[in-house]
Amino acid sequence: MRRTVRLAVLLLSFVLVGCAPPMPKLTGPAKIADLRLSPGLEGNAPTQVAANANWWRPLLNLQGQQVVSLALAESPDLALAKGRVQQAAALLQVAGANLRPQVDASGQIEGNRWTKNQFYLPPYSGASSWNNALRLDFSYSLDLWGKNREQAKAAGFQLATAEQQQRAAALILENAVLQQLIANAGDDALLQQLHRQREILLQIEAIARLRQQHGLADSLHTLAIASQLVTAEQEIDRVEAQRQHSQEALAVLCGVGTRLPQNLEQVSLPTSSSWHSPQRVPAAWIANRPDVLARRSAIEAAAAAVHVARDDYYPNINLVAFAGGLAAAGGLFTFLHPGSLQAGLGPAISLPLFSGGRLRGQFDARRAAYRIALAQYRQTLLQALQEVAGALTELQAADRERQQLQEDQQVLQRKERVQQQRYRAGLSNQLPVLAAELSLLDNRLQRIRLDVHAQQTLINLYAGLGGRVPAGTWPSAGVHS
After folding, report:
1. CA–CA distances in Å: residue 342 to residues 104, 224, 366, 401
2. What's the CA angle centered on 55, arms 49 and 56, to 5 degrees?
3. Which residues are 372's β-sheet partners?
4. How far apart are CA 56 and CA 474, in angstroms?
5. CB–CB of 469/479 below 8 Å?
């Protein structure tokens, strides 16, 4: 009879294991080589420049470096990312524990009064005694199907995902801080030129009023100059408010409130026209930036989870053993005597028989999660490619605009020299000279705005490349990747 029961259980186990769904073919993530790239991206170029966590240091002066360091130290976003890494590391430790033997201890010490009115016989009925026990339980999973190993593998990839997400969060923060530093410097440069513009307009207005008093000009010209002055004042107010807003945003990014520490309030980062646009960058740099690598690790974790869900169909076989002492009578330490020893050893087998579709649902959910991870990876990769390609396009357009502004500047400078010569020779009054200087100022304002935009776009490009700085692109002399 017992042999028949064992054979029936064994046969049923094989039948249920045979009901496990076949393992699907898990296709890998999309590759750069499989995508069509714009001319600025080189698909087969070797990766010669490694990502640098401190890529921003050579781009900044000492004060700028202190601001970024402060942001990295105090940012709540980075604190959250660091907490997720620590949590993932702890979960990896939990998953790894399933691969090791487990030993548990339990015990009890209690005094009992045995009733006279039940099945206890003398000398126990109506007597008091100790009922003590000590037990050690040992178990070890054989992991015949690799379920525990796959769980540990999934936890390892989840830790790698959290680490890459932490680096991606730092990269976003570094980018944002540098954007604000450049914006602040641009506002300072704009204000300097705008104040000079206001001075010139005030001189022109004074001359226009004097000419009007002597009947050499009508009031319309004076009103037009006054209108230009109002516009200039409004622009100064707007840029000053923008400068204040940028300072507050920078302080918030640094996690210190809405005002930077006093020693960093006057941080400067001069704008420059000596930036250069890279013609081409390796697309492999984009594939190795932190957010893309995080998605790739998430795919590996999802693949391991699919294996775990399929292994749930198989029987789980553990080796179990126990040893201890048990005594329901005698003295306090009777349970520690050799005669009180009890022990056992053997395999423990568990097999899901009827789960109402739970296992199939878990397997399908894990397989769907894997497909979602693939789609998210492809989406992140495409967005990264778009960001870099867009930055390259903007820089090339800015390069052409800078060339045009430089040509205009040369023409305006020649005009100013001619007007200066005419004024010194007494052939004209000062108005043409001031008008020529205003035109040059307008050209400088356009170049400052262009340089700020170009430098911010370069910072976006460096962050989009995962913290890589193509040599010779940044204005600072001696900057290397």
Report:
1. 16, 107, 44, 89
2. 150
3. none
4. 11
5. yes
Residue of 323, 310, 303 lying closest to 368 (CA atoms):
303
Burial of residue 193, with CB atoms counted within 10 A of its CB: 0-12 exposed, 13-18 middle, 19 or more buried? middle
> What confidence tens digit (pLDDT) does each residue in 27-36 have?
667 677 677 7
The CA distances from residue 299 to 26, 153, 162, 186, 274, in Å, are 10, 12, 13, 43, 42
Contact by Cβ (8 Å): 148, 98: yes
d(CA 184, CA 181): 5
Residue pLDDT, tens place only, 333-366: 777 778 778 888 888 887 777 766 888 888 889 8
Nearest to 318 by CA among 353, 280, 346: 346
Least Cα distance to 95 among 22, 154, 41 occurs for 154
Length of the chain in terms of residues written: 481
- How many C-beta neighbours within 10 Å does residue 102 have? 13
Instruction: Quote the CA–CA distance of 237 and 176 in Å, as a whole number.
Output: 24
**Helices and strands of the chain, counted as H and E runs:** 9, 8
Whole-prediction pTM: 0.83
Tokens 């009733």 belong to 115
Distance CA 311, CA 362 (A): 11
Q: CB of 168 within 8 A of CB of 151?
A: no
C-beta of residue 258 within 8 angstroms of C-beta of residue 252: yes
CA 335 to chain centroid, in Å, comes to: 59
- Average pLDDT, integer, range 260-285: 82
Q: Residues 6 or more apart from 27 whose CB is under 8 A from it?
A: 374
Amino acid present at 192? Q
Q: Fill in the DSSP letter of residue 330.
A: S
Query: Residue 317 in contact with residue 117, Cβ under 8 Å?
Result: no
